[in-house]
Write a structure and sequence with these properties.
The chain has about 800 residues and is an alpha+beta fold. The protein is about 50% helix and about 15% strand. A five-stranded mixed β-sheet has the order 7-6-9-11-10.
Length: about 800
C-alpha cells in the first residue's frame, strides 16, 4: 500500500511539474509563431546552431571548422553550444527558433522532477521530496538565465539535483550501476557544454563524497572492514568521473586541443580575470528580497552586467532554516542532522566562493584547485547552492513530519508529550536578518533604499532606484513576512498535530507562485518573424544571392558608432564574416589585429580588408565611392572592389620571427604585391610565382581550386591558418605555409593544377572513438552487474527452504 501511494505521488509530482511548466511558458508553447528571445542566444548562439543544423542536414555531418566568423575557426573545440546534447535532436526536426525554446521548457520541467528524485534519494518522505521539486522547479536563479539565452548554463544546472541524487543512491547501495548513471549525468553536463557549471557541480559532489567518507562511512556498523567502506565509495566516484570524461571525450578532446592555439578575448588577466563577475556582497539580499537592488531595467547595483537574479524563494529559505533549527533536536535521526549540517556548511562555503576576491575562499581555491584560473564569474558557484537549499527545504518539511509521527506514536493528539521539532528561540535567531529586512522593506522602503545608497554602494554611484522601487520593495517585504510566517506556521502546526499534513500543499502553491512572480520577468517572448535578430530583409537576401564562395562581409556596427546586425548574424545565412562574437581568437590572428578587436582592426590596419577578402560592407550610414547593392532603413550594403580569394603575390618576403611578420604586414602595401612568410630556421621560403586560381568547391572543411600557374611559386589564400589544415596539389600532400601572420599558402608547380585543402582533426577523431568505446564499456558494466544480481538471487532462492 505504501509503495502504491509513493508511486501515485511520484506521478502526481511529474504531472504537476508538467502543468506548471506549460502554464509558465504558455505564451511560447501555445503560439507556434513565437520564440524565447534570450539575448545571448539570438545574438551569438542561434547563428552557431543554425550553421550546425545546416551542415548536418546537408549530409556533411558535424562541422569541425566554420569559415563564417573571424575568417575561420575550429567549431567543436570552441564549445559552440549543446551540439552533442540529446535535446539538440529537436533542432533537426523543428524550426530552430521553436526548438531552442522547447529545450528551455523541457529543462525547467526536468529540473523539478530531478529535484523530487533527489529528495527521495535522500530518504525523504514523499511530500518532503515534493517540496524539493517545488523549490527547484521555477527557482529564479536557474530560470532567469533564460533572459540571457544561456541554455547550456540552464541545462547544466538542471542536471545537478539528478547528479546529487544518483551519488547518494550510489553511496548508500554501493551498486556501481548508480555510479555509472552518475557518470552519464556528468557527461551530459559536459555536452551542455557549460564546463564551468559542470566543474562547480563536480566540486559540490566531491565535497559530499568527502563528507560521506569522513562522517558517515566511518561510523557505519557492520562486519566489513572500515578501509573497505572507504575505498569502495572513492573507487566508485572515480569510476563515475572517468566514465564521464570518456563519454564526453568527443567534446572535451577538441576543446583541450585548441587551448594552446587561442587567446581569450578578455581585458582582465590572472586573478583579476578569475575574480571578475563575482557576486557583490550587497546582492546577498537578492536571495530573498530581489526588489532591494532591482533587476533588469530597474537594477541599480554594482554588477557591470546583470541579466539574472539570485532569488531563492522565501519558502525554501524558511524551510531550510527550519531544517537547521530542527537539526539541534532529536526529532530527526542523527544521519539526517549531519546531512543538514553539511548542506548548510557547503552552501555557506559556496556563497563565500561566489563573492570572489571579497573573501579568502576564492583566492585559496584559485591557488589550490586546477582549472579555477581558467574560469571567471565565481558567482556561478551559486548553482549547487540553489540545489542544496531546495534539498534543505525538503529536510525542513521532513522534520515537521518526523515530529508529528513521533508524537503520534508516543504522545497525545493534543500534542502534550510530543517533542517540539525546533527551539522557538533558535528559529527566531536564525530568521532575524531575513525578518528584519523584510519588515524594514514593508514599513520604510524609502529609508531602506537611502541606507543602501549611502552604506552599500560607492560614493557618487551613478545608478539610482527606479521611480517604483519603493512600491516594489514594500511588496517584496510583505512576501518575505508572509512566506516565512506561512512556512514556519504550517510546519510547526503540522509538527504539533494542530494542522493536517496536507498543509504542505499550501506551501508548495505559495512557493511556486512566488518563484513564478520573480522568474516571469525573465522570460522574453517575441514573434519570430518580427525579431530583428532572426528576421529576414533585403540586405540579407542580397548577400545570400550575391556573395560568392570565400567572399566575406563586414558589418561595421557599434564599433563605428551605429548598430546594424549582431556579430554572428551572417553565419545563420551561410555567409562568411570578417568579424564575429566568440570568447577566443586564434593566436596568430589575435597577434595580427593586436590590441584591436577584429572589426576595429579592419579600420586601423591597412590591407586587412584585402587579406580577409572582404567584398561587402554593411553600415548604418550612406557611403560615397562604393557601389550600393541593397538597403534597408538604417542599413546599407555596399560592394568593395577587391582581389581574388587566392592569388600569386608578386613578392615573397621570408622572416624568422612572428613579431617581424606582424610589423611588416601591418605596414605593408596591397597583399597582392607582397606576402610575408614565416620560415623556420634552415629552411627556404617558396619563390614568387605567377598565375590565377579559381574556387571550384568551397565547404567548411574542404576547399578546392583550379590553378593555372604560369610559373611555379607561392599561392596565397584568404583563409585562416590552423595546424589541422592539410593541403594537396594534384592529390600529393604538400606543406601549408603560414602567410601574412594568420593566413595559408602552398607552393604550386607550374602548369594546370588542382589544389585541395582539407581540415582533419585528430582530436575529434580520438574523442569520437573514446566516446564510443566508453559507451560500450559502460553498457558492458551494466550488463555484468545485472547478470551478477540475477545470479545472486537464484543462488539465494535455492538456498532457502523449499527453494529447490
Amino acid at each position: 500500500e505504501a509503495a502504491a501511494t509513493d508511486r501515485r505521488l511520484a506521478w502526481g509530482v511529474v504531472a504537476g511539474a508538467a502543468l506548471v511548466t506549460l502554464a509558465f511558458y504558455r505564451e511560447f508553447v501555445f503560439d507556434a509563431t513565437r520564440l524565447l528571445a534570450g539575448s545571448d542566444m539570438l545574438l551569438e548562439g542561434y547563428p552557431l546552431r543554425q550553421f550546425y543544423v545546416d551542415e548536418v542536414l546537408s549530409g556533411r555531418g558535424v562541422p569541425l571548422w566554420t569559415p563564417h566568423v573571424y575568417g575561420g575557426m575550429p567549431f567543436v573545440g570552441l564549445l559552440p553550444g549543446p551540439i552533442f546534447y540529446p535535446t539538440t535532436l529537436l533542432y533537426l526536426v523543428q524550426p530552430l527558433t521553436r526548438a531552442i525554446g522547447w529545450t528551455f521548457v523541457i529543462h525547467t520541467f526536468a529540473g523539478g522532477v530531478f529535484a523530487y528524485f533527489m529528495g527521495r534519494s535522500f530518504k525523504l518522505r514523499g511530500w518532503s521530496a515534493a517540496v524539493c521539486g517545488a523549490a527547484f522547479l521555477l527557482t529564479s536563479y536557474v530560470t532567469s538565465h533564460l533572459y540571457g539565452g544561456q541554455d547550456g548554463r540552464m541545462f547544466a544546472m538542471a542536471l545537478i539535483p539528478l547528479a546529487l541524487g544518483l551519488l547518494e543512491r550510489a553511496l548508500r547501495s554501493g551498486d556501481f550501476r548508480w555510479y555509472g548513471l552518475l557518470g552519464a549525468t556528468v557527461a551530459l553536463q559536459i555536452f551542455t557544454p557549460h564546463v564551468q557549471v559542470m566543474y562547480f557541480s563536480s566540486l559540490a559532489l566531491a565535497s559530499y563524497l568527502v563528507f560521506h567518507l569522513v562522517v558517515r562511512a566511518r561510523g557505519e556498523a557492520g562486519s566489513e572492514p572500515a578501509w573497505r567502506r572507504l575505498v569502495r565509495p572513492a573507487a566508485g566516484f572515480a569510476f563515475a568521473f572517468v566514465s564521464a570524461a570518456g563519454l564526453g571525450a568527443v567534446q572535451l578532446f577538441p576543446a583541450f586541443s585548441i587551448l594552446s592555439e587561442v587567446t581569450r578575448a578578455a581585458p582582465e588577466q590572472g586573478y583579476a580575470f578569475a575574480a571578475s563577475y563575482a557576486l557583490p556582497a550587497q546582492e546577498l539580499t537578492a536571495f530573498f528580497l530581489p526588489g532591494l537592488l532591482g533587476s533588469l531595467g530597474t537594477y541599480w547595483g554594482t554588477n557591470p552586467l546583470k541579466l539574472h537574479t539570485e532569488y531563492l524563494g522565501v519558502v525554501p529559505l524558511a524551510l531550510a532554516l527550519f531544517a537547521l533549527a530542527a537539526s539541534f533536536r532529536s526529532a530527526l535521526a542523527i544521519e539526517a542532522r549531519r546531512t543538514i549540517w553539511f548542506l548548510w556548511g557547503a552552501s555557506a562555503l559556496g556563497v563565500l566562493f561566489a563573492l570572489g576576491a571579497a573573501t579568502p575562499v576564492h583566492r585559496i581555491a584559485y591557488t589550490v584547485l586546477p582549472m579555477i584560473s581558467s574560469f571567471r564569474a565565481p558567482s556561478m558557484m551559486l548553482a549547487p547552492v540553489v540545489v542544496f537549499v531546495a534539498l534543505l527545504a525538503g529536510f525542513g518539511w521532513d522534520a515537521a513530519l518526523a515530529a508529528r509521527e513521533g508524537g503520534s506514536r508516543g504522545g497525545t493528539e493534543s500534542g502534550e508529550g510530543r517533542e517540539q521539532p525546533v527551539s522557538g528561540a533558535v528559529l527566531s535567531l536564525l530568521g532575524v536578518p531575513f525578518l528584519f529586512l523584510g519588515l524594514a522593506a514593508l514599513l520604510a522602503p524609502e529609508g531602506l533604499l537611502r541606507f543602501v545608497a549611502v552604506s552599500w554602494l560607492p560614493s557618487g554611484w551613478p545608478r539610482t532606484p527606479s521611480p517604483d522601487a519603493a512600491d516594489r520593495l514594500r511588496f517584496g517585504g510583505l512576501v518575505v513576512l508572509l512566506g516565512f510566517g506561512l512556512a514556519w506556521g504550517v510546519a510547526l502546526g503540522v509538527a504539533r498535530g494542530r494542522l493536517a499534513a496536507s498543509g504542505v500543499l499550501v506551501l508548495i502553491a505559495f512557493c511556486v507562485a512566488d518563484a513564478w512572480r520573480v522568474s516571469g520577468r525573465y522570460v522574453p517572448v517575441a514573434v519570430a518573424a518580427e525579431h530583428p535578430a532572426v528576421a529576414d530583409d533585403r540586405v540579407l537576401r542580397a548577400l545570400r544571392d550575391e556573395a560568392e564562395p570565400g567572399e566575406r562581409v563586414w558589418a561595421c556596427g557599434a564599433r563605428c558608432g551605429f548598430d546594424t546586425y549582431g556579430a554572428n548574424r551572417f553565419m545563420a545565412e551561410g555567409v562568411s564574416s570578417a568579424t564575429g562574437s566568440q570568447k577566443f581568437l586564434l593566436t596568430p590572428y589575435a597577434r595580427l589585429v593586436g590590441g584591436f578587436r577584429p572589426d576595429e582592426g579592419l579600420l586601423q590596419i591597412p590591407g586587412l580588408i584585402a587579406l580577409l577578402h572582404v567584398r561587402y560592407l554593411v553600415t548604418g550610414v550612406a557611403q560615397s565611392g562604393l557601389e550600393i547593392v541593397a538597403e534597408e532603413p538604417g542599413r546599407f550594403l555596399y560592394e568593395i572592389p577587391g582581389r581574388p580569394h587566392a592569388y600569386f603575390p608578386a613578392q615573397v618576403v621570408p622572416v624568422r620571427d612572428t613579431s617581424e611578420a606582424v610589423r611588416l604586414v601591418r605596414a605593408g602595401p596591397d597583399p597582392r604585391e607582397r606576402a610575408v612568410v614565416e620560415v623556420p630556421a634552415a629552411r627556404t621560403s617558396p619563390p614568387a610565382g605567377r598565375g590565377a586560381a579559381t574556387i571550384v568547391r568551397y565547404e567548411p572543411e574542404t576547399i578546392e581550386l583550379d590553378v593555372q600557374a604560369e610559373s611555379g611559386g607561392l599561392l596565397a589564400i584568404s583563409e585562416i591558418h590552423h595546424p589541422y589544415w592539410r593541403a594537396y596539389v594534384d592529390d600529393d600532400e604538400t606543406e601549408v605555409w603560414r602567410v601574412d601572420v594568420a593566413f595559408r599558402g602552398v607552393e604550386v608547380p607550374a602548369g594546370a593544377r588542382r589544389v585541395r585543402f582539407e581540415y582533419e582533426s585528430p582530436a575529434y577523431r580520438a574523442g569520437l572513438a573514446t566516446t564510443g568505446l566508453s559507451a560500450m564499456a559502460l553498457v558492458g558494466v551494466f550488463g555484468l552487474s545485472v547478470l551478477r544480481t540475477r545470479r545472486r538471487r537464484r543462488v539465494g532462492g535455492m538456498g532457502t527452504p523449499g527453494g529447490g
